[in-house]
Design goal:
The chain is mainly beta. The chain has one domain: OB fold (Dihydrolipoamide Acetyltransferase, E2P) (Beta Barrel), CATH 2.40.50.870. The protein is about 10% helix and about 40% strand. Strand 6 and strand 7 form a beta hairpin.
Length: about 130
């Protein structure tokens, strides 16, 4: 067991954004705005369903404040603004509604899920997300 930003963490794998960037590819190269079926690296596939920790910028994507993302970049330069690809965001599913603000830098732990073919979700998702703060 180790301490990470004041919280006890056990066997979580700490991931960097480069793990997500190099861990995904697509069979066809088409417009990035179109959802394409993903091919994940064996390293990421081994982490699916396991506890991970990722640090990034907190994004809120709707007026009801119920859709959350973790981004490699702050909102002004995130994927949705054309800076980066879909591998630079992670969908977050918190167990409790978070109180963070747009662009807060934080670390999140939770269960990693990989999305190969559902256009209603991001390619990367963290379920049972818990903010560890910074």
């Amino acid at each position: 067991m180790i301490s990470w930003f004041g919280k006890e963490v056990h066997a979580q794998k700490i991931l960097e954004w480069s793990d997500f960037t190099k861990g995904i590819s697509w069979e066809s190269e088409t417009d990035f705005a179109i959802f394409r079926e993903a091919i994940f690296s064996p390293e990421l596939m081994d982490l699916e369903g396991k506890e991970v920790i990722v640090t990034g910028y907190f994004l809120v994507l709707d007026g009801t404040q119920s859709i959350y993302m973790l981004s490699k970049n702050p909102m002004a330069s995130c994927f949705f603004c054309g800076n980066g690809g879909p591998e630079t965001i992670i969908e977050l599913e918190f167990t409790e509604k978070p109180s963070f603000k747009m662009d807060d830098l934080l670390s999140v732990s939770g269960t990693l899920r990989l999305n190969r073919n559902n256009p209603n979700h991001c390619y990367y998702r963290i379920e049972e997300a818990e903010a560890l703060g910074l």
